[in-house]
Amino acid sequence: IDPPHRLLMGPGPVNVHPRVLRAMSADMLGQFDPEMTRYMNETMALYRRVFMTENRWTFLVDGTARAGIEAALVSLVEPGARLLVIQAGRFGLLLSEIGQRIGAEIRTLDIPWGEVASLEQIEAAITTHRPQVFAAIHGDTSTTMAQPLAGVGAICQRHGVLSYVDATATLGGMAVATDAWGVDVVTGGLQKCMGGPPGSAPITISDRAAVHIMKRRHVEAGIRGEDLDEGPGALIRSNYFDLAMIMEYWSEKRLNHHTEATSMLYAAREAARVMLEEGLEARFARHRAAGAAMSAGLRAMGLSLYGQDAYRMTNVTGVYIPDGVDGERVRARMRG
């Protein structure tokens, strides 16, 4: 295989950092080799810093970023329970669709594309709908808007609601301040600001959410021991995305669930190391500067940007294609 070299300037995937590519070429290890479990523990510690959290349950879900989204929702939302979703772009619609597929009762806070929800709107919607789980997209690449999340966790806790945030498009590029926001579960991906390949979904889970998930715990018959109790809650309707079992796999028990995607673990570990060596604030400032330069340059060309400047993601910029311009021809020329 010999793919052409491209400078990838879309919303993802991006060009993979050379160090990450090198890490992925390292040899396989047995999933319970001491060296392998040490790498797993190191990766958990690295992603606590990436997610800006002290959460014990910070690890990887094997699969693309959507695997993390689905694992979070199927493990948090019980069948028949109510899920409240901010719908302000394509990926809010995705959260609703996944919720429907797992048997949730969907309620939405509908916001015009290119805008964001206010805390007052969020609390009013929670008061009206009384969901089990509230879900939002941090940065939606379909609109390039970044939803403000400071204060959202406190609102959810005040109303006894669990909170979930999809930070796929912002993790590694904007501050994903999990503990400061007070949200319960956040998921991401490697293939955007983390500078890695698609195939691994970092996740962090609060103690409050972990208790809820473990109430739905079910251990497979082939590995169930007398010391492992079933949870009293509804069975999680996925085996592969059952966070209770995945948490046991990443815990000191190392209860077998799947075979960890070794090369993707290496990639995730190295991507986090690269980010943390640069420094969180330096990295976020670099993205802010690049985003501001892109916006200024596009406007200097007489082009119009999509959405509100105050809430624009720093790492994705949406621009209107002028009337009379064939966007596909422009993209084809750029590939040349």
Automatic annotation (TrEMBL):
Recorded family membership: Belongs to the class-V pyridoxal-phosphate-dependent aminotransferase family.
Gene Ontology MF term list: alanine-glyoxylate transaminase activity; L-serine-pyruvate transaminase activity
UniProt-listed Gene3D superfamilies: Aspartate Aminotransferase, domain 1, Type I PLP-dependent aspartate aminotransferase-like (Major domain)
Recorded superkingdom: Bacteria
GO biological process, one term: glycine biosynthetic process, by transamination of glyoxylate
One Pfam match: Aminotran_5
The protein's name: Alanine--glyoxylate aminotransferase family protein
Ranges of residues in domain Aminotransferase class V: 29-321
Keywords: Aminotransferase, Pyridoxal phosphate, Transferase
Cofactors demanded by this protein: pyridoxal 5'-phosphate
